[in-house]
């Protein structure tokens, strides 16, 4: 059994985090989200993978290579232009002459669920998840064990069985893809190809997922995925922890990392390799810190993702935030994470405001951002790569890529 994984898209809704890397390479508990998908598939007995890559494909191919590091075999097909999910899966036609697992690289999946799919023998199986509010998803209608209709996002969904983006396909799907017309947005949608199979009398079934599922479509959903991943963290101390540092609960510390005296770290928490942490800092639960990160004196970090190479200067606070690579925080930088009225927090990207649904959310920060001493960042602020927040400035709303916020 082979797994075909879609990893070609940028993930425009994940900006500013995807300006320099594809969405599937964004880290969750210090691993790219795509790596979790591959490892779960491997645990289900799958060792052959075909990755459909495109946007910034080198980030994927250089990290995973031929897959030998993970004990699997990985091949690649390049989708030069993203023409929809059906078009992407169709690029696997030459490599798949038998049934195969088909996955989106940005959804969570368990090995147990994949084993259930492998045991089915219909022409196609759609994984679904029961959700409380299905309006944001495509859903299926059923008759017994068969799928009768696929309904894309609707204000009045006929069921609560959301399409989870995880499939088992017979090679007959490729013929269906070839005969699928373009959707109103000019793409070949895999759901339209599945409807073609249904209308043609093919057996299309479904499998309800009973494990955790998350469709990571917005930057703040990385925080939810990070919390889920850290639940299974196995503590390991490979770096140096000085005598007067305190580690409580499951904490993982990578090679070459120094945890200085007075640091207080509450798990689950993962800290990568070659980091310099402390002294006298407070790192709270559900925080992931990448490699080559410096956390200075009297810094507090809560429920956040801090990516490789970032430096957070002394007396700073980071709460419920996603911080990109190689950022540099001036001393006393503060990120707010709770509105005074305690309402949910909206985030603006490319001029479009979206309600995160989160009561606590700090900053979504791209790579290579610099903040000056005493700078303040308001709740839900989006900051593009290479931006500069001057000393004592208040950043709010959306700060564009490369923008320099200096008014004093």
UniProtKB/TrEMBL annotation:
Domain Mannose-1-phosphate guanyltransferase C-terminal span(s) in chain numbering: 265-378
Transmembrane segments: none
UniProt entry tagged with the keyword Transferase: yes
A Pfam family: GMPPB_C
Residue span(s) of domain Nucleotidyl transferase: 3-229
GO MF term set: glucosamine-1-phosphate N-acetyltransferase activity; UDP-N-acetylglucosamine diphosphorylase activity
Catalytic reaction list: N-acetyl-alpha-D-glucosamine 1-phosphate + UTP + H(+) = UDP-N-acetyl-alpha-D-glucosamine + diphosphate; alpha-D-glucosamine 1-phosphate + acetyl-CoA = N-acetyl-alpha-D-glucosamine 1-phosphate + CoA + H(+)
Pathway in which this enzyme or protein is active: Nucleotide-sugar biosynthesis; UDP-N-acetyl-alpha-D-glucosamine biosynthesis; UDP-N-acetyl-alpha-D-glucosamine from N-acetyl-alpha-D-glucosamine 1-phosphate: step 1/1; Nucleotide-sugar biosynthesis; UDP-N-acetyl-alpha-D-glucosamine biosynthesis; N-acetyl-alpha-D-glucosamine 1-phosphate from alpha-D-glucosamine 6-phosphate (route II): step 2/2
InterPro entries recorded: Bifunctiontional_GlmU_arc-type, GlmU-like, GMPPB_C, NTP_transferase_dom, Nucleotide-diphossugar_trans, Trimer_LpxA-like_sf
Any single biological process term in GO: UDP-N-acetylglucosamine biosynthetic process
Keyword vocabulary terms for this entry: Acyltransferase, Multifunctional enzyme, Nucleotidyltransferase, Transferase
Gene3D superfamilies the record matches: Hexapeptide repeat proteins (2.160.10.10), Spore Coat Polysaccharide Biosynthesis Protein SpsA, Chain A (3.90.550.10)
Main enzyme class: transferase
Protein EC: 2.3.1.157, 2.7.7.23
UniProt-listed NCBIfam families: Arch_glmU (TIGR03992)
Family, as annotated: In the N-terminal section; belongs to the N-acetylglucosamine-1-phosphate uridyltransferase family.
Protein name: Bifunctional protein GlmU
Upper taxonomic lineage: Archaea, Methanobacteriati, Methanobacteriota, Stenosarchaea group, Methanomicrobia
Chain's gene name: rfbA-4
């Amino acid at each position: 059994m082979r797994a075909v994984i879609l990893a070609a898209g940028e993930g425009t809704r994940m900006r500013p985090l995807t300006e320099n890397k594809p969405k599937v390479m964004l880290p969750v508990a210090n691993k790219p989200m795509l790596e979790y998908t591959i490892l779960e598939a491997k645990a289900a007995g799958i060792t052959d993978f075909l990755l459909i890559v495109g946007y910034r494909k080198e980030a994927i191919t250089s990290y995973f290579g031929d897959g030998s590091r993970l004990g699997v075999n990985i091949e690649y097909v390049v989708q030069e232009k993203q023409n929809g999910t059906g078009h992407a899966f169709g690029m696997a036609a030459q490599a798949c002459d038998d049934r195969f697992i088909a996955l989106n690289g940005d959804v969570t999946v368990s090995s147990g669920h994949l084993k259930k799919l492998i045991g089915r023998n219909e022409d196609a199986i759609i994984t679904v998840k029961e959700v409380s509010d299905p309006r944001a998803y495509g859903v299926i209608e059923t008759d017994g064990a068969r799928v009768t209709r696929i309904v894309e996002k609707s204000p009045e969904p006929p069921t609560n069985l959301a399409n989870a983006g995880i499939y088992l396909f017979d090679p007959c799907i490729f013929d269906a893809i070839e005969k699928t017309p373009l959707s109103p947005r000019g793409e070949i949608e895999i759901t339209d190809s599945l409807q073609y199979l249904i209308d043609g009398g093919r057996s299309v079934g479904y499998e309800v997922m009973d494990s955790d599922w998350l469709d990571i479509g917005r930057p703040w959903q990385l925080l939810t995925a990070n919390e889920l991943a850290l639940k299974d963290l196995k503590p390991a101390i490979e770096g140096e922890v000085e005598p007067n540092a305190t580690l409580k609960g499951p904490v993982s510390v990578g090679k070459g990392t120094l945890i200085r005296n007075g640091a207080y770290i509450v798990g689950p928490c993962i800290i990568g390799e070659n980091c310099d942490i402390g002294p006298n800092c407070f790192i709270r639960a559900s925080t992931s810190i990448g490699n080559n990160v410096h956390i200075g004196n009297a810094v507090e970090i809560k429920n956040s993702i801090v990516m490789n190479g970032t430096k957070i200067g002394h007396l700073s606070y980071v709460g419920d935030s996603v911080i990109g690579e190689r950022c540099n925080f001036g001393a006393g930088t503060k990120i707010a994470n709770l509105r005074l009225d305690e309402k949910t927090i909206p985030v603006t990207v490319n001029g479009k405001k979206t309600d995160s649904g989160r009561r606590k959310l700090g900053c979504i920060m791209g790579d290579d951002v610099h903040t000056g001493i005493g700078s303040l960042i308001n709740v839900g602020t989006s900051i593009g790569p290479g931006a500069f927040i001057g000393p004592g400035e208040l950043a709010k709303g959306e700060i564009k890529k490369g923008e320099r916020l200096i008014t004093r």
